[in-house]
Structure prediction request, 338 residues.
Amino acid sequence: MSKTRYRIISGAILVSLIIFSFIFLFSSSSSSEGKPLFPGIDALHSREGNIIIISDTQRTGALEFWREKNFPKTRRLLQEIAERNPAFIAILGDLTTNGSSIRNWRFFEDAFKPVIENKIPCFPVLGNHDYWGSDKKALRNFTTRFPLMKDATWYSFTYKRIGFIMLNSNFDNLSDEEIQKQNKWFREQMDVFENSEEIDFTIACCHHSPYTNSRVISASEEVRNNFAAPFQKYKKAALFLTGHCHSYEKFLEGGKYFIVTGGGGGPRQKLEVDKKKRQFNDLFEGPEIRFFHFCEMETIEKKLILKVWKLNEDDTFSLADQIEINGVDPLEPGGSTP
Prediction:
Protein backbone atom coordinates (compact mmCIF):
# COMPACT_ATOMS: atom_id res chain seq x y z
CA MET A 1 0.00 0.00 0.00
CA SER A 2 1.38 3.43 -0.96
CA LYS A 3 2.03 6.06 1.70
CA THR A 4 -0.54 8.38 0.13
CA ARG A 5 -3.27 5.71 0.20
CA TYR A 6 -2.32 4.78 3.75
CA ARG A 7 -2.66 8.40 4.85
CA ILE A 8 -6.06 8.73 3.15
CA ILE A 9 -7.37 5.56 4.83
CA SER A 10 -5.92 6.60 8.21
CA GLY A 11 -7.51 10.03 7.87
CA ALA A 12 -10.87 8.53 6.98
CA ILE A 13 -10.72 6.22 9.99
CA LEU A 14 -9.85 9.14 12.27
CA VAL A 15 -12.73 11.24 10.94
CA SER A 16 -15.11 8.30 11.36
CA LEU A 17 -13.96 7.81 14.96
CA ILE A 18 -14.51 11.50 15.71
CA ILE A 19 -18.01 11.43 14.20
CA PHE A 20 -18.83 8.24 16.11
CA SER A 21 -17.54 9.78 19.32
CA PHE A 22 -19.79 12.81 18.89
CA ILE A 23 -22.79 10.57 18.28
CA PHE A 24 -21.81 8.40 21.25
CA LEU A 25 -21.30 11.39 23.54
CA PHE A 26 -24.53 13.18 22.70
CA SER A 27 -26.78 10.17 22.26
CA SER A 28 -29.94 9.98 24.38
CA SER A 29 -29.87 13.76 24.80
CA SER A 30 -33.49 14.31 23.88
CA SER A 31 -34.97 12.62 26.92
CA SER A 32 -35.29 13.87 30.50
CA GLU A 33 -36.21 10.56 32.08
CA GLY A 34 -35.37 10.31 35.73
CA LYS A 35 -36.78 11.02 39.15
CA PRO A 36 -35.66 12.59 42.43
CA LEU A 37 -32.80 10.48 43.72
CA PHE A 38 -32.11 11.80 47.21
CA PRO A 39 -34.03 13.01 50.28
CA GLY A 40 -34.56 16.78 50.38
CA ILE A 41 -33.71 19.51 52.84
CA ASP A 42 -36.53 18.48 55.16
CA ALA A 43 -34.67 15.21 55.83
CA LEU A 44 -31.86 17.11 57.56
CA HIS A 45 -33.99 17.55 60.68
CA SER A 46 -33.68 13.83 61.40
CA ARG A 47 -30.07 13.38 60.23
CA GLU A 48 -26.93 13.19 62.34
CA GLY A 49 -23.30 12.93 61.33
CA ASN A 50 -20.58 14.86 59.57
CA ILE A 51 -20.80 16.67 56.24
CA ILE A 52 -19.10 15.43 53.07
CA ILE A 53 -17.98 17.62 50.16
CA ILE A 54 -17.01 16.20 46.77
CA SER A 55 -16.76 17.65 43.28
CA ASP A 56 -16.13 16.78 39.63
CA THR A 57 -17.32 13.18 39.63
CA GLN A 58 -17.89 13.18 35.86
CA ARG A 59 -16.47 10.43 33.66
CA THR A 60 -13.80 11.34 31.14
CA GLY A 61 -15.48 12.34 27.88
CA ALA A 62 -15.45 10.05 24.85
CA LEU A 63 -13.39 12.60 22.88
CA GLU A 64 -10.83 12.96 25.67
CA PHE A 65 -9.06 9.72 24.75
CA TRP A 66 -5.68 11.07 25.91
CA ARG A 67 -6.85 11.85 29.46
CA GLU A 68 -7.19 9.71 32.59
CA LYS A 69 -10.22 7.47 32.97
CA ASN A 70 -10.94 7.35 36.68
CA PHE A 71 -14.47 6.00 37.05
CA PRO A 72 -13.32 3.18 39.41
CA LYS A 73 -11.78 5.88 41.64
CA THR A 74 -15.08 7.76 41.73
CA ARG A 75 -16.90 4.57 42.71
CA ARG A 76 -14.41 3.90 45.50
CA LEU A 77 -14.74 7.45 46.85
CA LEU A 78 -18.53 7.20 46.93
CA GLN A 79 -18.48 3.73 48.45
CA GLU A 80 -16.37 5.09 51.31
CA ILE A 81 -18.61 8.12 51.70
CA ALA A 82 -21.73 5.93 51.86
CA GLU A 83 -20.11 3.75 54.52
CA ARG A 84 -19.43 6.83 56.64
CA ASN A 85 -23.15 7.68 56.38
CA PRO A 86 -22.82 11.48 56.63
CA ALA A 87 -25.66 13.85 57.40
CA PHE A 88 -25.50 14.97 53.76
CA ILE A 89 -23.20 15.43 50.78
CA ALA A 90 -22.49 18.74 49.03
CA ILE A 91 -21.60 18.13 45.37
CA LEU A 92 -19.77 21.10 43.85
CA GLY A 93 -20.68 20.61 40.20
CA ASP A 94 -19.81 18.54 37.14
CA LEU A 95 -21.90 15.61 38.27
CA THR A 96 -21.91 14.38 34.67
CA THR A 97 -19.81 14.79 31.55
CA ASN A 98 -22.76 15.99 29.47
CA GLY A 99 -25.81 17.22 31.33
CA SER A 100 -28.09 16.73 28.32
CA SER A 101 -27.31 13.05 27.99
CA ILE A 102 -29.39 10.45 29.80
CA ARG A 103 -26.54 7.98 29.26
CA ASN A 104 -24.21 10.24 31.26
CA TRP A 105 -26.79 10.60 34.02
CA ARG A 106 -26.95 6.80 34.22
CA PHE A 107 -23.20 6.79 34.88
CA PHE A 108 -23.82 9.29 37.69
CA GLU A 109 -26.58 7.12 39.17
CA ASP A 110 -24.35 4.06 38.93
CA ALA A 111 -21.50 5.79 40.78
CA PHE A 112 -23.85 7.18 43.45
CA LYS A 113 -25.74 3.90 43.89
CA PRO A 114 -24.51 3.25 47.47
CA VAL A 115 -25.39 6.82 48.41
CA ILE A 116 -28.86 6.50 46.88
CA GLU A 117 -29.46 3.14 48.57
CA ASN A 118 -28.46 4.62 51.96
CA LYS A 119 -30.87 7.54 51.37
CA ILE A 120 -28.19 10.14 52.07
CA PRO A 121 -29.30 13.69 51.11
CA CYS A 122 -27.22 15.36 48.39
CA PHE A 123 -27.17 19.09 47.66
CA PRO A 124 -25.45 20.10 44.43
CA VAL A 125 -24.39 23.19 42.53
CA LEU A 126 -24.28 23.32 38.74
CA GLY A 127 -20.96 22.85 36.95
CA ASN A 128 -20.11 23.70 33.37
CA HIS A 129 -20.44 20.07 32.25
CA ASP A 130 -23.91 19.92 33.77
CA TYR A 131 -24.96 22.49 31.13
CA TRP A 132 -23.38 20.66 28.18
CA GLY A 133 -25.54 20.07 25.13
CA SER A 134 -28.80 22.00 25.30
CA ASP A 135 -29.13 24.22 28.39
CA LYS A 136 -32.87 23.54 28.50
CA LYS A 137 -32.50 19.75 28.33
CA ALA A 138 -29.55 19.75 30.72
CA LEU A 139 -31.41 21.78 33.33
CA ARG A 140 -34.46 19.55 32.95
CA ASN A 141 -32.31 16.47 33.56
CA PHE A 142 -30.70 18.15 36.56
CA THR A 143 -33.83 19.50 38.23
CA THR A 144 -35.72 16.24 37.66
CA ARG A 145 -33.18 14.60 39.96
CA PHE A 146 -32.77 17.64 42.24
CA PRO A 147 -36.20 19.33 42.32
CA LEU A 148 -35.10 21.86 44.95
CA MET A 149 -33.44 23.73 42.02
CA LYS A 150 -36.52 23.99 39.80
CA ASP A 151 -37.38 27.55 40.84
CA ALA A 152 -33.82 28.90 40.96
CA THR A 153 -30.35 27.48 40.36
CA TRP A 154 -29.10 28.91 43.65
CA TYR A 155 -30.39 28.23 47.15
CA SER A 156 -29.47 28.06 50.81
CA PHE A 157 -30.09 25.84 53.82
CA THR A 158 -28.88 25.33 57.36
CA TYR A 159 -27.57 22.33 59.24
CA LYS A 160 -27.14 22.67 62.95
CA ARG A 161 -25.31 26.00 63.33
CA ILE A 162 -23.90 26.25 59.80
CA GLY A 163 -25.46 28.23 56.97
CA PHE A 164 -24.81 26.95 53.44
CA ILE A 165 -25.13 29.15 50.36
CA MET A 166 -25.13 27.21 47.08
CA LEU A 167 -24.36 29.44 44.08
CA ASN A 168 -24.44 29.18 40.29
CA SER A 169 -21.08 30.33 38.91
CA ASN A 170 -21.90 29.52 35.26
CA PHE A 171 -22.17 33.19 34.31
CA ASP A 172 -22.07 32.45 30.57
CA ASN A 173 -25.29 30.46 30.99
CA LEU A 174 -27.09 33.14 32.99
CA SER A 175 -28.83 36.25 31.68
CA ASP A 176 -27.83 39.68 32.98
CA GLU A 177 -31.09 39.73 34.93
CA GLU A 178 -30.34 36.35 36.53
CA ILE A 179 -26.82 37.47 37.48
CA GLN A 180 -28.14 40.62 39.15
CA LYS A 181 -30.90 38.66 40.89
CA GLN A 182 -28.46 36.08 42.25
CA ASN A 183 -25.97 38.71 43.39
CA LYS A 184 -28.69 40.58 45.28
CA TRP A 185 -29.97 37.34 46.82
CA PHE A 186 -26.42 36.29 47.80
CA ARG A 187 -25.77 39.45 49.77
CA GLU A 188 -29.17 39.28 51.41
CA GLN A 189 -28.58 35.67 52.44
CA MET A 190 -25.12 36.50 53.79
CA ASP A 191 -26.80 39.24 55.87
CA VAL A 192 -29.41 36.78 57.17
CA PHE A 193 -26.79 34.29 58.37
CA GLU A 194 -24.53 37.04 59.72
CA ASN A 195 -27.32 38.43 61.88
CA SER A 196 -28.78 35.09 63.01
CA GLU A 197 -28.10 34.01 66.58
CA GLU A 198 -28.57 30.40 65.40
CA ILE A 199 -25.67 30.47 62.92
CA ASP A 200 -21.98 30.30 63.85
CA PHE A 201 -20.46 29.74 60.41
CA THR A 202 -21.39 30.62 56.82
CA ILE A 203 -20.09 28.46 53.98
CA ALA A 204 -20.42 29.41 50.31
CA CYS A 205 -20.18 26.85 47.52
CA CYS A 206 -19.99 27.15 43.75
CA HIS A 207 -18.30 25.28 40.91
CA HIS A 208 -15.73 27.69 39.45
CA SER A 209 -12.70 28.59 41.54
CA PRO A 210 -11.90 32.24 42.25
CA TYR A 211 -8.33 31.16 43.01
CA THR A 212 -6.45 28.30 41.35
CA ASN A 213 -3.02 27.60 39.90
CA SER A 214 -4.38 25.07 37.41
CA ARG A 215 -2.51 24.86 34.12
CA VAL A 216 -5.72 23.72 32.38
CA ILE A 217 -8.42 26.16 33.52
CA SER A 218 -8.24 29.77 34.70
CA ALA A 219 -9.28 31.27 38.00
CA SER A 220 -12.70 32.92 37.65
CA GLU A 221 -12.56 36.68 37.87
CA GLU A 222 -16.37 36.77 37.85
CA VAL A 223 -16.51 34.58 40.96
CA ARG A 224 -13.88 36.75 42.65
CA ASN A 225 -15.84 39.93 41.93
CA ASN A 226 -19.41 38.71 42.41
CA PHE A 227 -18.99 36.22 45.27
CA ALA A 228 -15.53 36.16 46.87
CA ALA A 229 -15.15 39.90 47.41
CA PRO A 230 -18.43 40.36 49.31
CA PHE A 231 -17.93 37.04 51.14
CA GLN A 232 -14.68 38.29 52.66
CA LYS A 233 -16.45 41.19 54.38
CA TYR A 234 -18.56 39.03 56.71
CA LYS A 235 -17.42 37.95 60.17
CA LYS A 236 -19.12 34.54 60.07
CA ALA A 237 -17.87 33.73 56.56
CA ALA A 238 -15.71 30.67 57.21
CA LEU A 239 -15.12 28.66 54.03
CA PHE A 240 -15.59 29.18 50.31
CA LEU A 241 -15.63 25.76 48.60
CA THR A 242 -15.27 25.13 44.86
CA GLY A 243 -14.32 22.50 42.28
CA HIS A 244 -13.68 22.87 38.52
CA CYS A 245 -9.92 22.45 38.93
CA HIS A 246 -9.47 18.68 39.29
CA SER A 247 -7.09 18.88 42.21
CA TYR A 248 -6.81 20.04 45.82
CA GLU A 249 -5.68 23.58 46.66
CA LYS A 250 -5.88 25.77 49.77
CA PHE A 251 -5.81 29.56 49.72
CA LEU A 252 -6.15 32.16 52.46
CA GLU A 253 -7.41 35.41 50.96
CA GLY A 254 -8.76 38.33 52.94
CA GLY A 255 -8.58 36.22 56.09
CA LYS A 256 -10.90 33.56 54.61
CA TYR A 257 -10.14 30.05 53.40
CA PHE A 258 -10.86 29.25 49.75
CA ILE A 259 -10.67 25.51 49.11
CA VAL A 260 -10.52 23.82 45.71
CA THR A 261 -11.76 20.25 46.12
CA GLY A 262 -12.09 18.88 42.59
CA GLY A 263 -10.72 15.40 43.29
CA GLY A 264 -13.87 13.36 42.65
CA GLY A 265 -12.56 11.44 39.66
CA GLY A 266 -12.52 13.78 36.69
CA PRO A 267 -9.19 13.63 34.80
CA ARG A 268 -6.70 15.34 37.07
CA GLN A 269 -5.12 18.64 36.11
CA LYS A 270 -1.55 19.79 36.53
CA LEU A 271 -0.94 22.74 38.82
CA GLU A 272 1.72 25.40 38.57
CA VAL A 273 3.70 24.69 41.73
CA ASP A 274 6.70 26.93 41.07
CA LYS A 275 6.31 29.71 43.64
CA LYS A 276 7.91 32.19 41.24
CA LYS A 277 5.47 31.37 38.42
CA ARG A 278 2.16 30.55 40.07
CA GLN A 279 -0.49 33.24 40.31
CA PHE A 280 -1.79 32.54 43.83
CA ASN A 281 -0.21 31.36 47.07
CA ASP A 282 -1.32 27.76 47.59
CA LEU A 283 -0.82 26.87 51.26
CA PHE A 284 -0.88 23.14 50.52
CA GLU A 285 2.55 21.80 49.60
CA GLY A 286 2.06 19.09 46.99
CA PRO A 287 3.09 17.90 43.52
CA GLU A 288 1.67 19.27 40.29
CA ILE A 289 -0.72 16.29 39.96
CA ARG A 290 -2.53 15.57 43.22
CA PHE A 291 -4.73 12.91 44.75
CA PHE A 292 -8.36 11.88 44.44
CA HIS A 293 -10.18 12.94 47.58
CA PHE A 294 -13.23 14.18 49.40
CA CYS A 295 -13.62 16.56 52.35
CA GLU A 296 -15.33 15.84 55.65
CA MET A 297 -16.60 18.61 57.90
CA GLU A 298 -17.71 18.73 61.52
CA THR A 299 -18.18 21.26 64.27
CA ILE A 300 -16.94 20.83 67.83
CA GLU A 301 -18.31 23.53 70.13
CA LYS A 302 -17.34 26.82 68.42
CA LYS A 303 -14.81 25.29 66.05
CA LEU A 304 -15.28 24.19 62.42
CA ILE A 305 -12.99 21.35 61.31
CA LEU A 306 -12.45 20.36 57.68
CA LYS A 307 -10.53 17.14 56.95
CA VAL A 308 -9.31 16.14 53.50
CA TRP A 309 -9.30 12.40 52.89
CA LYS A 310 -6.91 11.13 50.23
CA LEU A 311 -7.56 7.96 48.24
CA ASN A 312 -4.37 5.92 48.31
CA GLU A 313 -3.11 3.56 45.62
CA ASP A 314 -4.27 0.54 47.63
CA ASP A 315 -7.83 1.96 47.85
CA THR A 316 -7.45 2.90 51.51
CA PHE A 317 -7.81 6.46 52.80
CA SER A 318 -5.47 8.70 54.73
CA LEU A 319 -5.69 12.22 56.10
CA ALA A 320 -4.04 14.64 53.66
CA ASP A 321 -4.88 17.98 55.25
CA GLN A 322 -6.89 19.53 58.06
CA ILE A 323 -8.22 23.04 58.64
CA GLU A 324 -9.62 24.38 61.90
CA ILE A 325 -11.58 27.63 62.04
CA ASN A 326 -12.69 29.31 65.25
CA GLY A 327 -16.17 30.77 65.43
CA VAL A 328 -16.89 34.46 65.90
CA ASP A 329 -16.94 35.85 69.42
CA PRO A 330 -19.79 38.37 69.31
CA LEU A 331 -17.92 40.55 71.81
CA GLU A 332 -14.81 40.75 69.64
CA PRO A 333 -14.34 42.70 66.36
CA GLY A 334 -13.25 40.91 63.21
CA GLY A 335 -14.29 37.68 61.56
CA SER A 336 -13.84 33.95 61.81
CA THR A 337 -10.18 33.22 62.45
CA PRO A 338 -8.07 30.33 61.15
